[in-house]
Amino acid sequence: MTRMSYRDAMRQAHREALAADPRVFLMGEDVGLYGGTYAVTKGLLDEFGPQRVRDTPLSELAFVGAGVGAALGGMRPIVEVMTVNFSLLALDAIVNTAALYRHMSGGQFPVPLVIRMATGAGRQVAAQHSHSFENWYASIPGIRVLAPGTVADARDMLVPALAHPDPVVIFEHAQLYNMEGEVPEERSADIRSAAVRRPGSMVSLVTYGGSLPKTLEAAEALAAEGIDAEVVDLRVLRPLDMDTVLASARKCRRVVVVDETWRSGSLAAEVMARIAESAFYDLDAPLARVCTEEVPIPYAKHLEDAALPQPAKIVAAARTLLGRSR
Amino acid sequence: MIEFKLPSLGADMDEGKLLEWKVKPGEPVKRGQVVAVVDTSKAAVEVESWQEGTMHEQLVGIGTTVPVGTVLATLLEPGVTAEAAAPQPRPQPQAPPAAPTVVAPPAPPPPAIPAPAGERKAVSPAARVRARELGVDVDQVAGTGLRGAVTLEDVEKAVRAAKPPAVAAKPPTAASKPTADRTAEMRKAIGAAMGRSKREIPHYYLAETIPMERAAAWLARENGKRPVTERLLMGAVQLKAVALALAKTPELNGFWAEGAFRPSASVHAGVAISIRQGGLIAPCIHDVERKGIAEIMRDLADLVARARSGSLRSSEMSDPTITVTNLGETGVEAVYGVIYPPQVALVGFGRIEVRPWVDGEGGLRAMPLATATLSADHRVSDGIRGARFLAELRERLQHPEEL
Predict the structure, then answer these.
(1) A104: helix, coil or strand?
(2) Is B1-84+115-177 a CATH 3.30.450.20 domain?
(3) Where are the domains of chain A?
(4) Contact yes or no for B110 and A312 at CB 8 A
(5) Exposed, middle or buried: residue A242 (CB in 10 Å: 0-12, 13-18, 19+)?
(6) Cβ–Cβ of A325/B112 closer than 8 Å?
(7) What is the interface pTM, i.e. ipTM, of the complex?
């Protein structure tokens, strides 16, 4: 076991990917000289040179589109987009091009492109840098969507994502970069399944990404009250691993979905609908969710905290499902 | 481990009392074998096992009354030994969780709002499924879940609370019970089932006069060839005619369950049999459409004898897909019956009587006639289909040699 930060794990993954395959290169705003907005790519320019680590102009549509072209041409590009908010400028390249070409060419033109982007709130950088649109991407056939929520996943998901024949979008919650954790020596190549992060029996807390540490914290608080909670980390947001989610729902019979996207049309809504479709008669309480309040993410600290899912809200939701008022 | 549960032996059965074990622990059990005898307030019924195995643990003592769905005994799967199955601790009620020690941010407690009168009681889907399995009436269970909903644990607690400890001493048997008690209990059971039928089933009624000359003549010829002990009754002929006529109107034969009709491929005809000390029971003859009239007659005689002595089998109680009642002996012209849930139809025959009849050529003559009636469930069929059934029944009875 080695202890490292999420940021270091991500950097190690890039270094190994660049070293292993000459077709792999990295591009994005400030990834080279500056070392990456979140310092993920610090040092890589010196190590691999400007051919492999390329700074781009401030035009998401142009450089994501260039990534699509490079992937079509046989390269294995990693494109970093500074935040999910800015990725909206590149939606045409991702949704109308990258996600469709293999389908529309009868399998002749796969697009093996990896797009990484930071997501989420909690750092007082205001509404235009704080939103979560994982649910939008997770609704698009033709792409795979990953959300590493642990240090080990930060290290291990990039390589299998590059090996995947279709575009893969990786969401990195900006609050996670400083998180430290133990990682095992052996690597996982799993970009298909969800993971049970904490086994439990009375209520299943289903979450992903930046909400995972908050949910684990809530599970500990619930345990102190005698409520044994299970925590399921979705990890893969498209396609959803419903076998793992349904097994947990059937076991615990009560489910709270924790998701930092806005409540309306959230990923939580989709997960809840699928549980209701498949496990309705196994449930012992209505399905519940903790999502972000339906406001642009506020700048003021107390308002930002109030808008987001927090451990206390998760604890309250779980308690309510068990018929315990306090 | 196979669970041998107390089955529901009819719409009027909520509980049953174990009278006797027919198999000892360690003895093998075959599919269809009688394992226990249970008193249903109507009769002592022999309960069969539908799975093969070895009797393991008998969980309910003789003389104990338990709700439908209760596990009476466990059977070991074929090939499994008691040793292999032994380390199975009985589930213990969970200890209450420790008092909270963490100070969490205060949240206003959601008020416990009882469900307003007249609203559907909140029952979780899992609790509803379990209650059905255990035969628990969820309306009688206090809910502790979100907004007072009945939860899975509430249902299981209610069952544990209702289950009295097993009695070791030999209890009075059904036969030794005062007759007045049994009659009162049976009256209550009939009242409950028929009350439910009339509340829930939108009955419609049809009647048809059926010439019985040919059937009577055929029966007389047949009986002329038979020794007295093997003579056939018109009731057996009518049962077979009903079973064959149902082929064209399958919506009269089967069960109404969970808001939908489930037709039955075979006709298991429940035969209404009156009990001498009062009351009524309607166990079935299985697969009537496939049996000859002589075989139906033997089954009928056997069934009547056993119904009156109180030794019916569980499959005979729970399988009827339609009921046939014949009040012919007592001399009424027609009977309009009440459907026995979850069945969807009942066929009645009145007495056979010689009355004036206008034949096909317009001639008036004396003819033995019987009135056949149909009570049917309007949720499943309409009058035109019921009429088709009675017409088919009439035609079948004109060709008794083909029955």
Answers:
(1) helix
(2) no
(3) 2-183, 195-321
(4) no
(5) middle
(6) yes
(7) 0.75
- Backbone φ and ψ of A216, nearest 5°: -65, -35
Taking only the tens place, the pLDDT of each residue in B40-84 is 877 788 888 888 888 988 888 888 888 888 889 988 888 777 666
Residue B351 contacts residue B332 (beta carbons within 8 Å) = yes
Judge if pTM exceeds 0.80: no
Query: pLDDT per residue over B166-211, tens digit each?
Result: 443 344 444 445 566 777 778 888 888 888 899 999 999 999 999 9
Residues sharing a CB contact under 8 Å with residue A146, sequence separation 6 or more, in sequence order = A157, A161, A168, A169, A170, A171, A191, A235, A236, A237
The fold of B192-402 is Chloramphenicol Acetyltransferase (3.30.559)
CATH number of A195-321: 3.40.50.920
Q: Is B176 on the interface with A (CB under 8 A)?
A: no
pLDDT per residue, tens digit, chain B (403 aa), is 888 888 888 777 778 888 888 898 888 898 888 899 888 877 788 888 888 888 988 888 888 888 888 889 988 888 777 666 554 444 444 444 444 444 444 444 444 444 444 567 889 999 998 888 888 888 888 888 888 889 999 998 888 877 654 443 344 444 445 566 777 778 888 888 888 899 999 999 999 999 999 999 999 999 999 888 888 999 999 999 999 999 999 999 999 988 899 999 999 999 988 877 778 888 999 999 999 999 999 999 999 888 887 778 888 888 899 999 987 666 788 999 999 999 999 999 999 989 999 988 889 989 999 999 999 999 999 999 999 999 999 999 999 998 8
Window 124-153 of B, Cβ < 8 Å to A: 124-129, 144-146, 149, 151-153
Q: How far is CA B247 from CA A109, B240, B265, B396, B397, in A?
A: 60, 12, 9, 12, 15
Write out the residue limits of the CATH 3.30.559.10 domain(s) in chain B.
Answer: 192-402
* Start and end residues for every CATH 2.40.50.100 domain found in chain B: 1-84+115-177
Peptide bond into B96 cis (omega under 30): no
Question: Any idea which architecture A2-183 has in CATH?
Answer: 3-Layer(aba) Sandwich (3.40)
Interchain CB distance below 8 Å, B126 and A284: yes
Measure CB to CB from residue B145 to each of A224, A225, A285 and give the nearest one.
Answer: A285
Under a CB-based contact definition with an 8 Å cutoff, are residues B167 and B61 in contact? yes
- β pairing state of B28-29 and A229-233: unpaired
Q: Are the beta carbons of A322 and B145 separated by less than 8 Å?
A: yes
Judge if the upstream peptide bond of residue B342 is cis by omega within 30 degrees of 0. Answer: yes
Catalytic status, residue A270: no
Which chain A residues are closer than 8 Å to B104 by Cβ? Answer: 221, 225, 312, 315
Catalytic positions of B, please? 378
Distance CA A55, CA A27 (A): 6
